[in-house]
């Protein structure tokens, strides 16, 4: 789906205090970019319109969340989503940062020193054609990039509507030194799961498409 252009997006982001225009300058020191650097650092890859990010950050004020998306226009929409959510709660946006960057090259903006404790990947492009599989955000090429800045014992939480992507991703995680600690092929049939619905999730659920989800824990690299 092609994102509609918004002429106001970039100007609004340029004045947004929690939008980072040059994220590569924060590589290794992301924690210091937040008012409370001692808090755990989580990352959402492919933040889109930031519906998930807004709810997560309000629900978990004791966590710092960095939201990454390649498309500035969609982050502009996300900024408005966040502003509306925080205004409704009458509190400042103090535990969330936005930045625009190519996720395939995310290692240029995050490093081991950032000690990320959790990564969220929600409804990424499934890239169904085999010639495009390397573009998947859960492909081994990408997972090995994430290992470089994810702490040992840290986890990736992944959700998708796409069955082929999900089954392939199970193999990808295991291949790259992750242990799957939670798995469901029908998330909304589960009870007691800490879940925040995204826009895509609500759309697919309305079409009776089961939501697949897993948590994968990073194990130490073998010596």
Write structural notes for this entry.
The chain is α/β, with parallel strands linked by helices. It is built from 6 helices and 8 strands. The protein has helices at residues 9-14, 51-59, 72-89, 140-147, 163-175, 199-206; strands spanning 19-20, 41-45, 64-69, 96-100, 116-122, 150-160, 178-184, 212-218. The chain has an 8-stranded mixed β-sheet with strand order 1-4-3-2-5-6-8-7, sandwiched between helices.
Q: How far from one another are the termini?
A: 44 Å
Number of strands: 8
Unreliable segments (pLDDT under 50, ≥5 consecutive)?
Answer: none
**Gross morphology:** globular
Q: With helices defined by DSSP (H or I, 4 residues minimum), what is the helix count?
A: 6
Radius of gyration: 17 Å
Tell me the strand percentage band. 15-25%
Largest sheet: 8 strands, mixed
- Report the helical percentage: 25-40%
Enumerate the strands of the largest sheet in spatial order, edge to edge or round the barrel: 1-4-3-2-5-6-8-7
Mean pLDDT: 95
How would you describe the oligomerization state of the chains in this entry? Answer: single chain
Structural class: alpha/beta
Q: SSE order, as H and E?
A: HEEHEHEEHEHEHE
């Amino acid at each position: 789906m092609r994102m509609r252009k918004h002429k106001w997006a970039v100007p609004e982001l340029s004045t947004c205090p929690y939008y980072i225009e040059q994220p590569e300058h924060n590589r290794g020191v992301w924690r210091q970019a937040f008012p409370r650097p001692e808090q755990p650092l989580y990352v959402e890859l492919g933040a889109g319109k930031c519906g998930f990010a807004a709810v997560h950050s309000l629900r978990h004020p004791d966590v710092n969340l960095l939201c990454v998306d390649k498309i500035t226009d969609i982050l502009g929409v996300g900024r408005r989503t966040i502003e509306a959510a925080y205004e409704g709660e009458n509190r400042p946006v103090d535990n969330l940062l936005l930045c625009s960057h190519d996720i395939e090259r995310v290692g240029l903006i995050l490093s081991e020193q950032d000690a990320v404790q959790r990564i969220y990947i929600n409804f990424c492009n499934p890239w169904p054609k085999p010639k495009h599989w390397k573009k998947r955000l859960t492909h081994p090429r990408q997972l090995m990039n994430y290992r470089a800045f994810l702490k040992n014992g840290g986890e990736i939480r992944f959700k998708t509507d796409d069955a082929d992507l999900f089954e392939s991703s199970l193999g990808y995680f295991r291949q790259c030194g992750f242990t799957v600690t939670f798995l469901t092929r029908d998330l909304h049939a589960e009870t007691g799961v800490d879940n925040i619905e995204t826009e895509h999730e609500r759309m697919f659920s309305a079409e009776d498409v089961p939501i697949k989800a897993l948590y994968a824990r990073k194990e130490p690299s073998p010596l």
